[in-house]
Amino acid sequence: MATDTTQKQEARLRGAAKVDFTTPLHTSVLENKTAIITGGASGIGLGIAAALSQYGVRVGILDINEEAGLRAQRDLSIAGGGTVKYFHTDVTSWDSQLAAFKEVLAWSGNTLDIVIPSAGVRSHNMRDLVYDQLADLTRDPTRPPTTTFDVNLRGTYYTTYLALTYLTRFASQPSSMEREFKPQLLFMASLAGYAEQSLSADYAATKYGVRGMWKAIRSQGKLFGGCQANLLAPGFVHTDAGAGKEEREEKHGIVGVKAAKTEDVVEGAVRCVCDGGVEGMFFSILLFFGPGGIGPDKKGMADGDWWIARAVCCVQGEEGRPGCNNFDLCDNMEDFNGGKVLLDAIRGGVLGRFGGKEWFGDGGFILRVYIHFPLFSICFTTSYIPEYECFKSLQIFNFWREKLRTVKTNCAL
Fold first, then answer.
1. How far apart (Å, rounded) are the C-alpha atoms in residues 218 and 224?
2. Exposure check for the chain: N or C terminus, fewer CB within 10 A?
3. Distance (Å, rounded) from C-alpha 64 to C-alpha 246?
4. Of 268, 349, 345, which Cα lies nearest the Cα of 310?
5. Count of Cβ atoms closer than 10 Å to residue 233 Cβ
6. Which is catalytic among the residues 203, 208, 245, 408?
7. How far apart (Å, rounded) are the C-alpha atoms in residues 257 and 245?
8. Is position 207 annotated as part of the catalytic site?
9. Would you state the pLDDT for residue 275?
10. Which helix or strand (DSSP H or E) is residue 35 part of?
């Protein structure tokens, strides 16, 4: 027993085998499956819904935006493939999510195979929130907005709880005993859950929270109907609601952002939900009925019937090859919880050139000079990038609630 426990602890530190992105995908396993996607009316969620529908999945879109949801239902239904239906849902409300799950199950014939908590909103800039309070120094600070926490974290927790509950219930059904497709729970985190995203305190906190939620159950899928739980951590992604390139560079201190497209993330999602080897170990599980209700039959579990799921970072692919540069973050302790792989990716320029703390190759640098006054600050920023053989820009910012003045000059050497 001690040896088994030690082996399990070591495996949790080491993780399972890395995702093999060269393995051909057999999307036929998705046919006639049922999926729930929160936030599926736009952005990444809509892209995943469209892809799964094309592979014959019955997709329930849960979203608060009724106009966008009905439009997605219409457009995806016209495109063919699996059936798509919109269900109006406020993910921050327990009652709303519960009702939506029950409606999907009634519509799908009491089947559920894939759940993707994709609903999310963007951050509030901490600097802007604080500086807004300087307009009247005699006024008490106002309460900061918590929408990002409510949607990104509480909403994901509700979705996860409902998904695990229903997947565990369905695993007790005799028809599920011989199934080949493992039920899927795919978390949607972000690169902000691994690397610093300056001033986006609420967003980063929620994405670290989603990552923590995933880690808490990643190796315990056998307790929840044999569920396979993986995680996506998209880098910078251009969606309809996303910021432009210049805004991202300015906000996050990145030069030459390599923003992914929605299809790069979609490829990562499809890889996770239909590649049974992603979590590194297939297992069988039997359930028994007893005085305590439904539970795993421990006599039916062979040694090693557990696994460590994987986290995939989705980044900019190449023309005509979406997702080709996605990579396994190796989010386990032996690999420094993804830190080493991510640092190598950043240094390799996969995400763009990070400013502020990283040198830009041989001889490249970024320089910031701050001059602080009682009620405002001035920041002079310049960066030299050898590959461009020029100073990228000279930026002068005057922060007084909003930026009142921005001067940029480009100087070729």
1. 11
2. N
3. 30
4. 268
5. 29
6. 203
7. 7
8. yes
9. 83
10. strand 34-38
Residues 6+ apart with CB under 8 A from 35: 49, 52, 57, 58, 59, 60, 113, 114, 115, 116
Smallest Cα–Cα separation from 222: which of 271, 177, 278, 168? 168
Choice between 315 and 405, residue whose per-residue pLDDT is larger: 315
Mean pLDDT, to the nearest integer, of 347-373?
Answer: 57
The C-alpha atoms of residue 17 and residue 15 are separated, in whole angstroms, by 7
What is the C-alpha separation between 208 and 228, in angstroms, rounded? 20
Contacting residues for 164 by C-beta, under 8 A, at least 6 apart? 185, 217, 224, 225, 227
DSSP code, position 304: T
- Mean predicted lDDT score pLDDT of the chain: 78
Q: What is the pLDDT of residues 5-32, one digit of tens each?
A: 555 555 554 555 688 888 888 899 999 9
Contact between residue 139 and residue 133 where contact means Cβ atoms under 8 Å apart: yes
pLDDT in tens, 197-215: 889 999 999 999 999 999 9
Catalytic member of 182, 207, 215, 392: 207
Alpha helices in 31-65 (DSSP H): 43-54
Report helix, strand or coil for 128.
helix
Side-chain-side CA neighbours of residue 327 (13 Å): 19
Identify whether 85 is a catalytic site residue: no
Judge whether residue 55 has pLDDT over 50: yes
Structure token pair of residue 270 = 């499809």
Burial of 159 (0-12, 13-18, 19+ CB in 10 A): buried
Nearest to 330 by CA among 351, 310, 307, 344: 310
Would you call 73 helix, strand, or coil by DSSP?
helix
Look at residues 117, 333, 306 and name the one whose alpha carbon lies nearest to residue 227.
306
Return the DSSP state at 364.
-
Who's near 258: CB < 8 A, 6+ residues apart?
Answer: 235, 236, 315, 316, 349, 350, 351, 352
DSSP annotation string for 6-19: HHHHHHHHH-SPPP
Handedness of CA 50, 64, 92, 193 (dihedral sign): positive
Three-class secondary structure of residue 48 per DSSP: helix
Integer CA distances (angstroms), 293 to 176, 197, 248, in order: 17, 45, 51
> Do the Cβ atoms of 276 and 226 come closer than 8 Å?
no
